[in-house]
């Protein structure tokens, strides 16, 4: 049927079409480090590239002390680039959990997470509040939301249709939001190597000094411009016979 014409003025936010349904990924790469290795991050990328191009480095273990040539002790270490895999394409299949709800807009009551979960479970387990027996509950610490899963079918769907509900917690009533609980499964993931421009991997470091002394020695050596180095931003060392894991995050600097 035809509708009467009506002039309307849009007063809202405009977004680019490309930004709709876009998934933003934050890199958090766990990089294994073998024994006898070190990761050194310089403040400038050109310093790291220069160290890599030199490949071999003779590091003095005297920690800068003035010694005669025959008294000096040196070790040879290898410098290599750091390549980490980053997603180049990602496909996720979303499915709704038919027995679960996502509870958000929760009040800040100054109580522990466990106490809040107990109060929510007590409220939503009652049929007069539209709920039923709660099978499991989970607090999502990164978002401050709660996932509740019921033992019966149909309960979650009814609550989701309501959208919002007033929850009685202690002596107060608080309006919370009820949303579907979605599960995501990765159906396609493609990776491509990415070069860390400011970080260098050092290999072949012998176990001749204690951990702190070796870390200081490496930093002293590689921050000297006369040896091709520069200002060191961070350094991690794993002694021989041990294993380590370095965590790479997005470089926002």
TrEMBL record:
Principal localisation: cytoplasm
GO biological process: innate immune response; regulation of innate immune response
Membrane-crossing residue ranges in chain numbering: none
Keywords, in A-Z order: Cytoplasm, Immunity, Innate immunity, Nucleus, Secreted
Protein name (record): IN35 protein
InterPro entries cross-referenced by the UniProt entry: Nmi/IFP35_dom, Nucleotide-bd_a/b_plait_sf
Cellular localisation: Cytoplasm; Nucleus; Secreted
Domain NID per the UniProt entry, residue ranges: 38-136, 146-233
Cellular component, GO, one term: extracellular space
Name of the gene: Ifi35_0
Pfam families on file: NID (PF07292)
Family: Belongs to the NMI family.
């Amino acid at each position: 049927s035809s509708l009467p014409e009506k002039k309307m003025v849009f007063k809202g936010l405009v977004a680019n079409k490309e930004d709709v349904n876009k998934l933003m990924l934050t890199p958090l790469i766990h990089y294994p480090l073998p024994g006898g290795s070190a990761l050194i991050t310089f403040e400038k990328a050109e310093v790291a590239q220069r160290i890599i191009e030199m490949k071999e480095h003779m590091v003095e273990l005297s920690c800068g002390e003035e010694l005669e040539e025959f008294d000096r002790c040196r070790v040879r270490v290898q410098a290599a680039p750091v390549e980490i895999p980053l997603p180049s394409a990602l496909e996720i299949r979303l499915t709704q959990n038919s027995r679960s709800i996502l509870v958000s807009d929760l009040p800040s009551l100054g109580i522990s997470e466990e106490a809040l979960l107990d109060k929510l479970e007590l409220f939503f387990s009652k049929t007069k509040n539209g709920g039923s027996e709660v099978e499991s509950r989970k607090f999502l610490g990164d978002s401050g939301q709660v996932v509740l899963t019921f033992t019966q079918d149909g309960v979650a769907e009814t609550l989701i249709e309501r959208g919002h509900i007033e929850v009685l917690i202690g002596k107060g009533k608080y309006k919370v939001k009820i949303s579907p609980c979605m599960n995501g499964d990765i159906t396609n993931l493609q990776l491509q190597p990415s070069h860390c421009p400011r970080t260098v991997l050092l290999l072949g470091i012998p176990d001749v000094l204690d951990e702190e002394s070796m870390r200081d020695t490496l930093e002293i050596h590689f921050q000297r411009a006369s040896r091709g180095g520069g200002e060191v931003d961070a350094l991690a060392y794993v002694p021989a016979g041990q294993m380590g894991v370095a965590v790479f995050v997005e470089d926002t600097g």
